[in-house]
Every structure is written in structure tokens, then in C-alpha cells.
Amino acid sequence: MRRVVITGAGTISALGSSVRETWEAMREGRCGIGALDIRDVERLSIRIGGQVTGYDAQVHFNRQQISLYDRYTQFALLAAREAIGQAGLTFTGDLAASTGVVLGTSGGGLTTQDENYRTVYEEGKNRVHPFVVPKLMNNAAAAHISMEHNLKGPSFTVATACASSNHAMGQAFNFIRHGMAQVMVTGGSESMLCFGGVKAWEGLRVMSRDACRPFSANRNGMVQGEGAGIFVFEDYHHAKARGAEILAEVIGVAMNSDASDIVMPSKISAERCIVSAMRDAQIDPSEVGYINAHGTGTAANDKTECAAVAGALGAHADKVMISSTKSMHGHLIGGTGAVELLACIMALREGVIAPTINYEEPDPECALDVVPNEAREADVSVVLSNAFAFGGMNAVLALRKAP
Amino acid sequence: MSDNVQDQVIAIIAEQAMLEVEDVSLTASLADLGIDSLGLVESIFAIEEAFDIQVPFNANEPEKSDFDISSVAAIVAAVEGLVKAQS
Hints:
The structure holds two protein chains of two kinds. Chain A is an alpha/beta fold. Chain A folds into two domains: about 5-240, Peroxisomal Thiolase, Chain A, domain 1; about 255-400, Thiolase/Chalcone synthase (Peroxisomal Thiolase, Chain A, domain 1), CATH 3.40.47. Chain A has helices at about 20-30, 55-60, 65-70, 70-85, 95-100, 110-120, 130-135, 140-150, 165-175, 195-205, 235-240, 265-280, 300-315, 325-330, 335-350, and strands spanning about 5-15, 35, 50, 100-105, 155-160, 185-190, 225-235, 250-255, 290, 320-325, 350-355, 375, 380-390, 395-400. In chain A, the strands form three sheets. A ten-stranded mixed beta sheet of chain A has the order 5-4-6-7-1-8-14-13-9-10, sandwiched between helices. Chain A has a two-stranded antiparallel sheet with strand order 2-3. In chain A, strand 13 and strand 14 form a beta hairpin. In chain B, helix 1 (about 1-15) runs antiparallel to helix 2 (about 35-50) and helix 1 crosses helix 3 (about 70-85). By secondary structure, chain B is mainly α. The longest helix of chain B is centred in the N-terminal third of the chain and has 16 residues, at about 1-15. Chain B is globular and about 30 Å long. The interface of A and B includes residues 221 and 298 of A.
């Protein structure tokens, strides 16, 4: 099997519009969550989110592009430009033919759907813009990245709710690992912070009205975010041969399904997924220095996840650092694993562990080192990134310091 | 009005639990009736729709809610309170 490394990273979220800005925010423990600025917010009971603020699409895209690009596609394209720019790759010939784009998203062009349902149902219009369908498609972002960068290999979108990005990156990893591609562009994007998107989540009664406080005893729910994280995964020898800068190595992935409940997480299944990821990466639990938690800030997820980590890592669970950066950027749903992978790369590359901010009260059911409130300097060589989705679909990635 | 609220709440819970109305006792908890966390959230939604009220309930901290869900009788009393506050 081939070794797989990351040679490019790009992002936009409430924490910033580049990897550098995002790492700075994570280092400072800055909170990107604030009052939602969206149409009809006064009709929502949940009025906070990790929104990308100060964003002007016209700075990045022309009129024709904007008419085709939903906000989630715009985010994906911007993050892809940064990632592919950093990787320094130009796609022509055989490389273009074999390189694909595998992205995660849950809502796809949900904002486009929301706006156009308004047009026909609320405003009673009988005509919508001709590009509604190509704009709202869940594969639109992957398609536009492929067009902008001439990527003609296997491209598709994975939808496993909150684990979409991890499933997508796991697929891209396997493509390269099994020799089916030398380079893959992967990650995820989400933009559900529109009236209908937030209203739907509100109905489930799992959202916090004030803050995302993962692992804290007084946590009261999740907070939605938006944005994208895109990476260039590359065959190690391919990267080495061209002298590319390597950000980290992807060493393992595991995916499984609870097959039990549509929303409640399963400790046994999450634990099995973590164990499988370590086995796939051929690492011992004692090597794991940091885990980027799924850490949604709901009562159910956080205690289940801590129990799963404790079960999977055994005695070493007391030594590992585990943090939820959702406390800062919110839950990007289908894009969340991608933005969270940045915290993993920061840990490996910069030796800085992103904190779990808003941590106020210890919870005996989350008795791990959750790196409360302040980033920490630490030399870690192996990290895990957890994603446990609604539907009981889990995906855990394992990464190692750049070789 | 009071009986009416009680009957309506019991009818909603019975439908959710897939039981006959007669089988829903006031002292039962939702768990006794086989209603899980999703069923609870759906019952609250049905109650809000039936009485046109807002039920303050966050699934992450049910104990902090003013809306007591410990038994059918407690839910009836809580709904009566909210309906009263509304009028």
C-alpha cells in the first residue's frame, strides 16, 4: 500500500479565511460564534452561529459565477484555491486524468433551496432562476472544483451528516493508498445558516441558545457553523519526488455504522471505530497524543464519546489530550471534519493543541484532558480525528507527523 | 378546560406510544410508556401545535426546563400552566 501525505490545506470558516488565520484563532482560543445575521432571524429561537462574517462573494467571483455558486460551493472553491495553491500542483495530462475531488457535505445548496422555496411558496411566484438545480446539487461544489482545476479523476460527494468530511477524506486516502490515484482533492463544505436550515435544527431541541461548551457539565447543546476545509492528499513518493512540502501523513481510517438509533450515539460502536482506525494505522493506543473530538456540546455526544475514547485507549486515555474545536467554529455539519483536520495538522506541525473553549464546569462523565480554554504546546506524533454522525455513521482518521 | 387539556395531552401521548387512551395512566412516566427521547421531542411538538404554545424544552438539559416531564400528570400540569399563561 502507498503512503499518503497532505501537501495542501485551505479553509474558510468563522475563524478566518485561510489556514494561517484559522490556526491563529485556534491558538488564541478565539470564539467565532456570535449573533446570526440572516433574514428572519427574529422568527428563530436559536439566534447564534459560527457565521463567516465580512464575506463579499463579489471579491472572489464574477456575476456569472455567483449565479451558479451556492454559498457552500463558494466556500469550497476558496478553500480549494488555497490548498491547491499551497501544494503547487498544476493538473495536466495523466495527473489531471487521475486526480479527483471527493467532498463531504450534508445540506449542499441548502441556502439556494431555502431562497427558492421562499420565492414560490411565500412570494407566490411561478418562476425560479434557471440555475436552481445546478446550484443546489450536493455535488456542485466538487464539480466546480474539478472544473476550476481540471481534475478529471473519480469525483463525488459523500453525505453522512456530521461525518461527511471524514468519510470523504477516508475515501480519498484509500484511493491513493490503493494506487488508484497519485493526488486527490478532498475535504468538505457546508453552509446551512439560513432561516430554514437553522429552523430545522431548532425543531430537534438540541441546540444551545448561548454557547457551545463541549465536555463542560453545563453544556446545553450544539451551535451551527459554516465554511469549508479542503486538502490535497498525495502519494508520498509523488510528493517527495517533486520536493513538495508535506504538512502531515494520513496513516489510517475506519468507518462503521451503529445500526441502532437515528440520532442517539453508541458508545460501543464509536469505540469500535476508534479501535479500527488505530489498527488500520498500525499504531498502539499509547502513541496517540491528541484526539480532535467530535465534541458537539450535546449532553449525549460528549459523554458517549468520552466513554468510547476511554474504552478504546484504555489506561492511555488519561494521558491523551482531546479537544473540541466546535467550541470556536461551531458545528459545520458535513464540513466539520475537514475544518477540524486543521487542528490535527496544527498539533502535528506546530506543536500546538487547540483548546476546548467555553469550558466552565468539570463533568465526571467527561473526565479526560479536554485542553480547557487555553491552547497548549505539546510535541505529538500521532493524532486521531473523530466524527460520529446522526444515522450512527462514524468515521475516524489517524494522522502522523510529516515523515 | 382543565379536563380538556388532560384529555388532549393523554391523546397525544397515547398516539405517540401507540397505546389506547385508557392505557395511559397519569402516574406513568414517558419511559414507562415506551416513549424515547425522539418520541418526547415529537410529543412536545404535538403539544405545542395542539395548544398553540411554546414549550421551553432543551433535550440537553431536561432537568433545567420549567416544563416537568417526569410523569403524564406533570406534563398535563405544565401544559395547563402554559395555556393559562397564554390567555
